[in-house]
Amino acid sequence: MSSKFYSKENLNFLLHDVFPIDELCKKEIFKDHTPESLDMILDAAGTMSETQLRPILVEMDNKPPYIENGRVKVHPKMRDLMQTFGKDGWISMSAPHEFGGQQVPFTVVQAVGFVMGAANYSTMVYPYLTTGAAHLIESFATQELKEKFIPKMYSGDWQGTMAMTEPGAGSSLSDLTSTATPTADGHYLIKGQKVFISCGDSDAVDNVVHLMLARIEGAPLGTKGISLFIVPRLRPKANGELVFNDVNTAGVFHKMGYHGAPIAHLIMGENSDCHGYLVGEANKGLSYMFQMMNEARIGVGCNAVSIASAAYYNSLDYANIRLQGRKVTEKDPAKPQIPIIEHADVKRLLLFQKAIVEGSLSLVMEATTRYDRWQASEGEEKERNLLVLELLTPMVKSYPAEMSIQTTSAALQCFGGYGYTKEFMAELFFRETRIHTLHEGATAIHGMDLLGRKVMMKNGMATMLLMQEVMEDIEKAQKYDSIKAYAIGLGEKLMKLQEVTVHLVSVAQSEGPEAYLSDATLYLELFGILAIGWQWIKQGTKVEELKQAQSKNYSAEFLQSKMYALQYFFEYEVPKVDGLITRLMSKNRVTVNAKKEEIL
User: Fold this and answer.
1) pTM of the shown model
2) 232-246 pLDDT, tens digit each
3) pLDDT digits (tens, 9 = 90+) for 310-351
4) What is the DSSP annotation of 30-93?
5) Is the distance from CB of 161 to CB of 148 less than 8 angstroms?
6) How far apart are the first and last CA of the chain?
7) Which H helix or E strand runs over 394?
8) Which of 290, 354, 419, 490 could be 415's S-S partner, Cβ–Cβ 3.0 to 4.6 Å?
9) What share of the chain is helix, strand, coil (3-state, %, to 5)?
10) Which residues are catalytic?
11) Residues 6+ positions from 328 with CB-CB distance below 8 Å
């Protein structure tokens, strides 16, 4: 079987035709790059993924991290990889020039993450977490702290993390109990526990730098009293010497997937000697952390797509070589068996994966280009891009995460009984992707964020701006007979979405917030399906434009495959919104009314 885990042709199509990166290169912040230089970065990512990341995927899965003498041991190759990620500029590629970065557009950074994640998701968790943590220090810390921590993080010598979750405070961060006590020396003494900290400790690096949320003694209760601290495992002294900072690894969680990256349980300040360094102003920590969280939420969606992509190509290869049965019209058992890809239901399994993977990756690129335009613009344009980006983020994070569970399951189904065994990788991808509905907030959290805050943000301005753009794309699509009916249908569904939104706002007014938000997850799903439908209309329009221009950049088979995936999405996935609309318009509050003792 081939080792293909993503489509380079599809990535080129998205980055050069649907979301052309040449437009980004015209922006002042990205002026040092050309489409050709960015392509070289993506080619290098592909080569590294094929030669260094993919070959150790199964081995990393079979040999998960473990604790030895209080330290987490990971695959020995990870230390070499972190040095390579640092030395070759992968960790710092999006950083400003002043920190030795290349100011690569976020769109290309995520495209690199997609390629690497499709090859071996565990390996790219280490550098991408470090990038996010270093960016947080860049944005809000003092110059002294920047100089002390950033260079070693970008070099790959030190790991960066997000340390938020506690045993009694997961999504409810207002309940965190970690404390920070000020000292006369300018640092704080940190005490508390953090759980589920990705790459929270490992021998792949010399030091781990935690961006940690804690409450300064006497701070207000709730989220308004949370501050952000740099808490290294080893703290650097003035002479550069590293001393233990009273950050102990209490355990490593045994996960169902992505075994190559550890998730640690950490205890800070057992001996009252854990030094933390305040980032920015006191009590503003959560607002700072949201920068890293929102970037990571887009990354989570991209990661889910990457694993789904790997599973898709794995099952596509198998479907082409696995002989099983004959056409239903063939009654002669003496005739040779046929590849299972010739069976209509196997085509359904494959088209389902393709439609979700390529539609979701397009939605990720939609968000990342908004981020880049937001970085590069000013005034009204800057606000417009930020508003649309904020509205899209819950969908970008959640739709690919939820659907990748279904698509990797479909990939496993293609293998039949073999898919359920470790002799094939199908079950590995199924396990790997499951975490993404939990990473950076469970799906319900994002449903409540979308319905409870984002759609009404600035008096609904973000929703209005997005709808204007979608309707413009729908109008453009109607020039082409192949997609006209689908475009019109999408427009009709969007009108229904607006009706649902108005109805739910009336529910909030008449029945209160609990009834209003009780089905927020379903609202998120509805919005997500229509957002992917929008992406397929954009892709379908571009395909037709390329055909009219008689472009030689893509094979006829590739362009036709796009149209089949578009048709599949509108014929099989978009109809699901009707059931969601029926439920959301219902007045029966099943989940609100059910008493806990009645759920037996």
Assistant:
1) 0.96
2) 999 999 888 999 999
3) 999 999 999 999 999 999 998 899 999 999 999 999 999 999
4) GTT--HHHHHHHHHHHHHHIIIIIGGGHHHHHHS--EEETTEEE--THHHHHHHHHHHTTTTTT
5) no
6) 48
7) helix 379-414
8) 419
9) 60, 10, 25
10) 440
11) none
| Short-list 526, 457, 521, 468, CA closest to 497 | 526
Residue 273, C-beta contacts closer than 8 angstroms, at least 6 positions apart: 189, 245, 246
Q: Just give the CATH number of 160-283.
A: 2.40.110.20
CA 306/CA 6 separation, integer angstroms:
8
Q: For residue 94, what is the enclosing H or E element?
A: none
**Residues 286, 152: contact at Cβ < 8 Å?**
no
95: helix, strand or coil:
coil
547 is written with which tokens? 């055909």
pLDDT for 394 beyond 60: yes
Written out in words, the top-level CATH class of the domain with range 14-152 is mainly alpha
- The β-bridge relationship of strands 71-73 and 227-232 is unpaired
Element of type H or E holding 590 = helix 590-593
In the three-class reduction of DSSP (H, G, I as helix; E, B as strand; rest coil), residue 293 is classed as helix
70 in Cβ contact with 249 (< 8 Å): yes
* Cβ-based neighbours of 534, under 8 Å, separated by 6 or more: 470, 473, 490
Identity (one letter) of the amino acid at 540?
Answer: G
Q: Are strands 263-268 and 275-279 parallel, antiparallel or unpaired?
A: unpaired
**DSSP string covering 1-16:** -----S-HHHHHHIII
d(CA 330, CA 152): 66
Distance (Å, whole) CA 308 – CA 533: 18
pLDDT of residue 372: 96
Best CA proximity match to 408, nearest among 118, 128, 196: 118
pLDDT in tens, 491-516: 999 999 999 999 999 999 999 999 99
Q: Which residues contact 157 (CB under 8 A, 6 or more apart)?
A: 82, 83, 86, 205, 206, 207
- Residue 232: strand pairing partners: 209
